[in-house]
């Protein structure tokens, strides 16, 4: 009677999606994704997908077109429903977690009816923070970002780079635990990309916020990252997690550092391999 | 010589060219005797008569009652149309279930309903205001609903991510987002209101109003007064529209820029 039991148990384990109970998070993990399922029109995109995002680090998500980089991030951030699975932030659910999100399209993300400064203050005011504290927090961000343009202007009066800077300040204002950035540079010129890259890095060093960045530009993806999460074609799996340990702050010249070149080369190699697969 | 030409072609003066051409054509039609002067008085005399009606004050009772009725109808249309439109717009299912009714009555010329409204309200001032309010409310409702439905998803998501309550997302984002479209609706609604009020004044027994004045002048063959009243009605419609454009520019400062 006791003979076939172990086999049955194994069968059950294989067919039941992974949870934090069957696969505990690695040490120093901030965000835990377990047993994530998502399909579009019957075609599976993610099946039983597991991921640990480390605390206070910047993770870039990179992968072939259509592998669902943004979809993954949006499901973690709760902007898109998942078919099954769980996401825990330090063991808490999303509902109990403060997050920030920076959209690719800054023009559609800011509120044009209020000034740039009021945009930054908006999430603070809505969380019933006293006005004096709101002003103090905004001033703190102005100092951190060394803002030289006039924040009493309306968003549509600012340049693209200035608008994206305001978006980032607004996302950082409530001191989020995790910050998500969806292709934050794709609509910016090179000069603004350099500026915002530097500012994001400073903000990260100053606050220690865990960041997740989706990028389609390999150099941007590698430059800011502590880890590059490389995804395969769909159905999507993790191809490799590439660590990048160049000390911060990284200057724009870091792109010619041998370590940067090596990591970028390796990442490209994995990417090519996955494209061919 | 060149400087003079430049002055003549000052871009700010360009809008005056159309009306001047029209007056010239008007005069030409009379001078060439294409139209009998009994049917079309000279432009100068008509304008002088129009000025007279203002100086003597005989136009004011009619002008004010038309303005009063139009604004009353407009106020009712806004009070009903905006809240209802925003409510329907925030639930797409609700809007879809009444969409046919809205589109049907929006496509029905409101003047076709005048007899029906006469049965309900009798031959009163309230009747004229009610029918104009009905036509205008549908326009306001339709535009407000679409304004809310077409709110930029990214802005709504941005507010969701911040953990803002549903009520505040509605009030701070969707409602604000709908304002630009709502104002387009308000502008069309005030024009529609004026059209219906004028028609109602012509055909629903009326003692005052520009519509009443136009048809009365025509009946007694007071041609100069008829043309004058038509011009005043046109100017009224133009000014109402202009007023709303100016308010829109001030209030919805982001319109078309974001």
Strand content of chain B: under 5%
Structural class by SSE content of chain B? mainly alpha
Largest sheet of chain B: none
Broad CATH class of chain B: Mainly Alpha
Give a brief rundown of this model.
Helices cover 38% and strands 22% of the residues of chain A.
For the structure shown, list the relevant keywords.
heterodimer; A: 277 residues; alpha/beta; six-stranded mixed beta sheet; disordered N terminus; B: 258 residues; mainly alpha; MetI-like fold; flat
Describe the structure in your own words:
- The complex is a heterodimer of chains A (277) and B (258).
- Chain A has 277 residues and is of the alpha/beta class.
- Chain A has a domain at 110-176.
- Helices cover 38% and strands 22% of the residues of chain A.
- Chain A is built from nine helices and nine strands.
- In chain A, strands 5-6-7-3-8-9 form a six-stranded mixed β-sheet, sandwiched between helices. Chain A has a three-stranded antiparallel β-sheet with strand order 2-1-4, with no helix packed on it.
- In chain A, α4 (116-126) packs across α5 (131-144) and α8 crosses α9 (258-276).
- Chain A is globular, with a radius of gyration of 20 Å.
- The N and C termini of chain A lie far apart (46 Å).
- With 258 residues, chain B is mostly helical.
- Chain B has one domain: Orthogonal Bundle (MetI-like fold).
- Chain B has helices spanning 2-8, 14-31, 43-56, 60-90, 92-107, 114-121, 125-149, 153-161, 166-203, 210-219, 223-251.
- In chain B, α4 (60-90) packs across α10.
- The interface between A and B is medium-sized, with 24 and 20 residues.
